[in-house]
Every structure is written in C-alpha cells, then in structure tokens.
C-alpha cells in the first residue's frame, strides 16, 4: 500500500513540477479534487519524493580552489565566495559545499567517520540520501561536554545516519578523561574498542578544525584558560579531531594526548579520504597546520581563509 501511495504522489508531483501541468489539470486527469492535489504535493515534499536545491551560480571561487589544490597537493578544495552576511550563513554555505562533495563520493557499504563540532553538525543536518545503501556512520572521537549537545559526536552520527538512511554506531565515552591509566582502561573496553576499530577503517572521515584560542571547546568550558595557556606554551595553535597540533602540523606532547578518547593523528592519516570543514580568518593558522600534518585530503573553506593560505 505504501509503495502504491508513493507512486501516486510521484505521478502527481511529476505532472506538476516536470510536465508543468496546473493543479486543475492534474485534478481532472487523476479524478481528484484540486485541494487533494495541493495536499499530495505537500506530502511529496515532506516525504522526500520532491526535493528542491537552490544554488547561487557564483557560489565558489574555482580559481582559488585550483591554486590551493596545486600548492598543497590536496585531492579536492571547495572555496565559498564571500557573499555571506554573518557566521551562521557562512557555516550554512560551508555545509552545503561539503554535502555537495560528499554526495559524489559516498558509495554502498561505506563507513563514514565523524568528529564533533558546529561545522560537522551542520553538514550532518543538511546531508541528503544520495542512493548509497548499507552505510555505517561512526564517531571517531569521544563525546564533548558534560551534557548532550548538538555538537556531540554521537548526536552527529545519529543525525547523519537518519538523513542517509544508514546505521549509526555510538561511542559511549567522554573525549577527555582524568588520567592515562583510565584512558587505557576505557580503550580496552570491548564495546568502545570495537567502535574505534571500525572508526579507524572508515572510508571517509568528516572533521572540523579548531583554533585553541577561540573554539567550541572553550565556549563549552571543555578546556579552560589555564589549559589554553599550557597548550600555547607547548606550541599548540589548533586541533583536528581533538588532536592538538603546532604550526608545522606535529602533535603537541601535552597531557591531553594521553587523556583523549579518539583515533590518533596517524590513524586519521590512514583513512582514504579525510574531509575538513573550516571557515573564518581566525582559523587560518590552524587550517594550514592541519594541511601540513598530512591528515587532510579535502578542504572545504571560505574565500578569506583561502587567500590567507595562498599568501
């Protein structure tokens, strides 16, 4: 019955949007009222039978993309033009760019690893089913914060899985723990170990890039001002998947290294396609450091960051 109803919705929607028939014409062809046609068109949109994509023709700076790909030997770069009015709009456009790219590379049976953060959540919220089946979405880092929030890796994995009609795994551990001994014990837990092993074998990883001086971690008080001072003295300027790195992309040897539940920087590098989404001029140094680390294959960023990187 559901298939028959979906097909009926499809035929009505096709007649209206593709054949350009009026609702009156459709009502006569199918023997239903005009109000029924209107309701069926609404239902077709709500059920995902009809999808709309509005795209600004000059959304990308292709010249900067080519220059960055050549300079840093990246697999792909997408640079959004500086037409946004605020940070939220910029984040939305970055997510659109990431979704557009991911939709071209997601295939059946793939495992997609996800980190945490605002940009990663925005991508997970916007991504659409592209026909790929049997996908698995898995966190590659522990949960951020003492309370469940939108930027939590498990929430992001679940959100992305819902939108892609995929399966989500949960990593039920915090991102930071009190000691190396406690971390080692957690990492040996059967359930957590199996999720992290799956994460290490991801076909694609989606990550954000953080600036330690102004980041979601400081906003949520995951790391405090004293932590930032200590990390800065050790040379840290940013993080990728909660691995703190210096300006040359090397992991900083802080006590956080031994207290973090995540896949390591080396394990991240072993993933075939790591897609990083990061915008804002304040992240330029951290983005450059992440590129130098060798962990990034694909960069989604904005025009200001792109120009700074090329400079």
Explain how this protein is built:
The chain is α/β, with parallel strands linked by helices and 311 residues long. It has two domains: 2-46, Arc Repressor Mutant, subunit A, CATH 1.10.10; 62-310, Rossmann fold, CATH 3.40.50.1360. The chain is 46% helix and 13% strand. The chain contains 14 helices and nine strands. It has helices at residues 2-18, 23-30, 34-46, 62-72, 87-105, 118-126, 153-164, 180-187, 190-200, 216-219, 225-233, 265-269, 284-293, 303-310; strands spanning 76-80, 111-114, 136-139, 167-168, 204-211, 238-240, 243-245, 273-277, 298-302. It is globular and about 75 Å long. The mean pLDDT is 92.
Brief digest:
The chain has helices at 2-18, 23-30, 34-46, 62-72, 87-105, 118-126, 153-164, 180-187, 190-200, 216-219, 225-233, 265-269, 284-293, 303-310, and strands at residues 76-80, 111-114, 136-139, 167-168, 204-211, 238-240, 243-245, 273-277, 298-302.
Integer count of domains: 2
**Mean pLDDT rating:** 92
What is the makeup of the main sheet? Answer: 9 strands, mixed
Overall 3D form = globular
């Amino acid at each position: 019955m559901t298939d028959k109803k979906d097909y009926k919705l499809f035929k009505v929607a096709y007649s209206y949007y593709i054949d350009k028939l009026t609702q009156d014409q459709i009502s006569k062809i199918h023997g239903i009222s005009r109000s029924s046609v209107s309701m069926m068109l609404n239902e077709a949109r709500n059920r995902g039978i009809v999808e709309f994509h509005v795209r600004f023709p000059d959304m990308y700076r292709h010249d900067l993309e080519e220059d960055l790909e050549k300079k840093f030997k990246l697999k792909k770069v997408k640079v959004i033009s500086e037409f946004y009015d605020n940070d939220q709009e910029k984040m939305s456009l970055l997510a659109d760019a990431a979704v557009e790219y991911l939709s071209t590379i997601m295939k059946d049976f793939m495992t997609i690893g996800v980190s945490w953060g605002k940009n990663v959540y925005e991508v997970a919220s916007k991504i659409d089913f592209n026909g790929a089946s049997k996908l698995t979405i898995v966190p590659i880092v522990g949960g951020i914060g003492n309370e469940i929030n939108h930027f939590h890796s498990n929430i992001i994995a679940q959100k992305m899985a819902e939108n892609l009609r995929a399966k989500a795994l949960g990593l039920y551990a915090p991102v930071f723990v009190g000691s190396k001994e406690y971390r080692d014990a957690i990492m040996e837990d059967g359930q957590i170990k199996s999720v992290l092993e799956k994460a290490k074998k991801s076909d694609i990883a989606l990550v954000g890039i953080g600036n330690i001086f102004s980041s979601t971690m400081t906003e949520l008080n995951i790391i405090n001002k004293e932590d930032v001072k200590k990390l800065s003295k050790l040379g840290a300027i940013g993080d990728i998947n909660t691995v703190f790195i210096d300006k040359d992309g090397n992991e900083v040897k802080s006590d956080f290294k031994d207290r973090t539940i995540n896949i390591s920087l080396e394990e991240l590098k072993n993933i075939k396609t790591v897609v990083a989404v990061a915008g804002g001029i304040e992240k330029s140094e951290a983005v450059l450091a992440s590129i130098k680390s060798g962990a990034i294959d694909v960069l989604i960023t904005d025009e200001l960051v792109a120009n700074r990187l090329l400079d």
